[in-house]
Q: What sequence folds into this?
């Protein structure tokens, strides 16, 4: 196994009296999709924000990048390392077209200050082609795109910075079947290009479809780290809910198959 | 490894064909009149009306007034009209910038009045050179706008409230400046007066038309060549020529008419010059892109690393600077600044013209040409009703009706875009 591109150990984060994360361990390898699972309020978004530099972690934990310890104190630190984050509210400008959104804040220029639209559009076509994404026209305002297309534009945009780790907070939450498939395809393509992908999702089917590994958080602690291919649905649910006695396991015991609580627990 | 149990993506099947990128769902426009008509119908249904309603409205206004008074479309009347709209037109240009941010500036009238006061007091009471007086007035405008922008952006006070305070406060400063003089007459021969008294000989007008068309053709053809070189969809030569023809129509017609009276007026040229300059800044520069981005979603702009506060402060600065220039034009046309300069219908007219011209009140949508189109519509209505010797009351009611129609069109087209959104894959 290769060294993880990103590794966190013993990370804690307190908000006033709330300990949102305590002693969390987490790592992503290059070319791997890690699902981050947990019930509402488990601390998934907080962990992503710690990694993205939006909420720096409490002192005590260690974050390493390619095996070297680093500090992530601000979003710019994370960006410089090569971590891209796509939050659930996509932050696109509805009135700008696709090219405008892709290069927002990062425009290609020829004269001082004048936009090089041709170059930007060419790069946009190249980028979307490399992701095998096809969009009717790059010059329509993104307001007219479907939810899945908007998600894809948001992801593509983060790739312009050539990140090595991409984190997606519930990218398929609001999408229909076909659009979800489109986004999952894109996630697989990112993995195939050697990027580490962190995927937060409440949708077990999505997780099983694309993730290689699932890390479960429960009440701010690591409650399990499962290789997806060798773990049953029930085991993961048990780790998420924190009990062997939950609706899902009760149901499977009745139907004959057994389910153990957590497996491979750290 | 992961199982690929999800639905295969149908969209992936589309392959780029013959160099140019084509999606089967992309509706192509056939390069023929009927093809363009089809595209036009599609845009109208999609809520992208463009300048069409205003142009139709302008033609209708022309026809109606001409049928009621045959002096309406005379070269003299039309020439006067272009000079009359210049002052408020400059204010409108500034208002458009603010509207693009999704904000509003209620102080443009007062700021133009203040600038008028500064010009007159400096040039007449203190006898400074008129150029210096103009420069000082414009500088005061810039300062005022930066103050508005700072309070709005840095202190988080809604722009509506900041500029409402400005509306009252700067009028107060203006009155204070004028002191006991109700009105100050300025020279009728100096540079200030020349701003609205200068007309260019016919050949200048024609040279400008040729220059504009040549620049347009060269720049469009260069871009289209580059696009085709980069394998991007591009316009055919026929389409470019057709568009150039559409541009030539109003240019040639306008100059021809203006030349039959005294030639192209400097005041109108200044106004159009600012409109064109602002249009280029908005469409072609990084700064313009940032203005649209902040207007579309300030949060997205902030996350993209744009200094949102700086954009906001600068836009309010530009708006008040242009308002001050408008004030100078008002003095030039009246040979005087009075306590009531800029305190009348100017503010309402400037905002109405922007919206009538097609700039959205909802932020992020619109362009600099709205100032020209909207200004022409309101100017034509004013001039026509004056010719018919109608009362101001009628003018206000009609202007209000036109404004309402424009706002309703804006709201409908916004709804059209909303319902058409998310209908893609
Ligand atoms: N800025 C904050 N200030 C105070 N408490 C916070 C803050 N952010 C998160 N928390 C708390 O931290 C805990 C974890 O929240 P988090 O948003 O990470 O959950 P989550 O796993 O993403 O949940 P969900 O699935 O609902 O998105 C919650 O108890 C939440 O109230
Ligand atoms: Mg969350």
A:
């Amino acid at each position: 196994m290769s060294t993880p591109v990103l590794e966190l150990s013993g990370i804690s984060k307190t908000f006033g009296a709330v300990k949102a994360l305590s002693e969390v361990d987490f790592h992503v390898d290059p070319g791997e999709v890690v699902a981050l699972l947990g019930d509402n309020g488990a601390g998934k978004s907080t962990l992503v924000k710690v990694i993205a530099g939006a909420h720096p972690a409490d002192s005590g934990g260690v974050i390493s990048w390619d095996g070297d310890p680093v500090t992530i104190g601000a979003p710019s630190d994370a960006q410089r390392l090569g971590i891209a984050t796509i939050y659930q509210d996509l932050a696109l400008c509805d009135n700008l077209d696709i090219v405008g959104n892709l290069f927002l804040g990062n425009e290609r220029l020829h004269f001082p200050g004048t936009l090089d639209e041709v170059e930007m559009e060419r790069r946009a076509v190249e980028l979307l082609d490399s992701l095998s994404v096809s969009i009717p026209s790059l010059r329509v305002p993104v307001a007219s795109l479907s939810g899945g297309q908007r998600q894809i534009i948001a992801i593509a945009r983060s790739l312009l910075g050539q990140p090595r780790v991409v984190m997606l907070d519930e990218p398929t939450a609001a999408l229909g079947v076909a659009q979800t498939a489109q986004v999952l395809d894109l996630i697989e393509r990112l993995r195939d290009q050697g990027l580490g992908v962190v995927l937060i999702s409440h949708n077990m089917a999505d997780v099983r479809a694309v993730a290689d590994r699932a890390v479960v958080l429960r009440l701010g602690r690591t409650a399990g780290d499962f290789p997806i291919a060798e773990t049953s649905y029930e085991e993961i649910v048990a780790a998420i809910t924190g009990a062997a006695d939950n609706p899902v396991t009760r149901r499977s015991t009745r139907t004959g198959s057994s389910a153990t609580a957590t497996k491979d627990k750290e | 490894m992961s199982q690929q149990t999800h639905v295969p993506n149908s969209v992936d099947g589309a392959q780029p064909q013959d160099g140019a990128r084509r999606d089967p769902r992309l509706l192509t426009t056939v390069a023929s009149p009927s093809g363009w008509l089809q595209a036009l119908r599609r845009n109208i249904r999609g809520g992208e009306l463009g300048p069409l309603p205003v142009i139709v409205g302008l033609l209708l206004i022309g026809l109606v007034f001409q049928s009621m008074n045959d002096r309406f479309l005379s070269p003299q009347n039309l020439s006067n009209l272009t000079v009359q709209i210049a002052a408020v037109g400059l204010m409108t240009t500034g208002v458009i910038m603010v509207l693009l941010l999704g904000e509003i500036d209620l102080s443009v009238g007062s700021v133009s009045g203040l600038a008028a006061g500064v010009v007159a007091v400096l040039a007449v009471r203190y006898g400074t050179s008129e150029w210096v007086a103009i420069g000082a007035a414009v500088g005061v405008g810039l300062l005022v706008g930066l103050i508005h922008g700072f309070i709005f952006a840095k202190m988080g006070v809604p722009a509506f409230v900041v500029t409402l305070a400005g509306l009252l406060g700067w009028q107060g400063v203006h009155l204070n400046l004028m002191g006991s003089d109700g009105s100050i007459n300025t020279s009728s021969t100096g540079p200030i007066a020349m701003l609205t008294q200068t007309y260019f000989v016919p050949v200048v007008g024609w040279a400008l038309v040729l220059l504009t068309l040549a620049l347009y053709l060269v720049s469009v053809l260069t871009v289209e060549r580059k696009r085709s070189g980069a394998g991007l969809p591009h316009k055919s030569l026929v389409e470019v020529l057709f568009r150039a023809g559409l541009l030539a129509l109003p240019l040639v017609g306008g100059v021809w008419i203006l030349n039959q009276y005294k030639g192209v007026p400097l005041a109108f040229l200044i106004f159009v010059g600012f409109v064109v300059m602002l249009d280029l800044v908005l469409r072609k520069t990084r700064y313009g892109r940032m203005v649209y981005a902040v207007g579309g979603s300030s949060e997205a702009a902030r996350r993209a690393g744009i200094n949102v506060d700086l954009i906001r402060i600068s836009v309010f600065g530009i708006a008040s600077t242009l308002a001050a220039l408008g004030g100078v034009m008002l003095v030039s046309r009246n040979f005087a600044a009075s306590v009531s300069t800029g305190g009348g219908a100017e503010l309402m007219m400037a905002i109405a013209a922007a919206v009538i011209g097609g700039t959205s009140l909802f932020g992020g949508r619109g362009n600099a040409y709205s100032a020209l189109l909207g200004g022409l519509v309101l100017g034509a209505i004013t001039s026509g009703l004056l010719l018919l010797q109608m009362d101001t009351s009628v003018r206000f009611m009609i202007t209000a009706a036109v404004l309402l129609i424009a706002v309703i069109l804006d709201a409908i087209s916004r709804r059209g875009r909303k319902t058409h959104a998310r209908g893609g894959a």
Residues 177-192 of chain A form the longest helix (16 residues).
